[in-house]
Amino acid sequence: MKTTIIVGIVLLAGYLLFSFKTENKTELPNPKGVHFYNGTWNEALAEAKKQNKVIFLDVYAVWCGPCKKLKKTTFNNEEVGDFFNTNFINIAIDGETPEGQKLMAKYGVRGFPTLLIIDANSNLIDRTTGFHSANRLIGFGKQNLK
């Protein structure tokens, strides 16, 4: 009986350990969609300076319906991926993490999703909020290129 309980606890612990998703940094990008930078905000800024690009920042929340739809549809669109991967350092940050909360305060983010264009010196260029279709998101990106 004692062995059965111990085995049950070990199995339950293993299930719980592997069933919870970690931050989006562990997800593999859609090869045809937007590739999001796998690092911190400061690392993304450094990469933007290195590549002489601006940053496309998606501030999201894991529970946000429009954020999920944006990720599932628009960010997986091949044309959106081609445009944003060529012209921006793309990064998605959960606004409810410590790093995300600092960025929300710095850039005045009040809702999810908020999509920001930021230069390599951390200056806000433009913002938009809510779900965007592929064409609308590409239009937003194009109007903010140098």
Task: For the structure shown, list the relevant keywords.
146 residues; alpha+beta; Glutaredoxin; four-stranded mixed beta sheet; 4 strands; 45% helix; globular
Structural class determined from secondary elements: alpha+beta
What fold name goes in the CATH topology slot?
A: Glutaredoxin
Assembly state (oligomeric) = single chain
Superfamily (CATH H level) name:
Glutaredoxin
Mean pLDDT: 87
Q: Return Rg in Å.
A: 18 Å
Give the number of helices.
Answer: 6
Text of the CATH class? Alpha Beta
Structure description:
- This protein is of the alpha+beta class.
- The chain has one domain (23-142): Glutaredoxin, CATH 3.40.30.
- 45% of the residues lie in helices and 17% in strands.
- The chain contains 6 helices and 4 strands; from the N terminus they run ααβααβαββα.
- The protein has helices spanning 2-19, 41-51, 65-72, 78-87, 98-107, 134-142; strands at 54-60, 88-94, 114-118, 124-129.
- β3 (114-118) and β4 form a beta hairpin.
- α4 (78-87) packs parallel to α6.
List the helices and strands and how they pair.
Blueprint: H1 2-19, H2 41-51, E1 54-60, H3 65-72, H4 78-87, E2 88-94, H5 98-107, E3 114-118, E4 124-129, H6 134-142
Parallel strand pairs: 1-2
Antiparallel strand pairs: 1-3, 3-4
Helix pairs in contact: 4-6
How would you briefly describe this protein structure?
By secondary structure, this protein is of the alpha+beta class. The protein has helices at 2-19, 41-51, 65-72, 78-87, 98-107, 134-142, and strands spanning 54-60, 88-94, 114-118, 124-129. Residues 16-28 have low confidence and may be disordered.
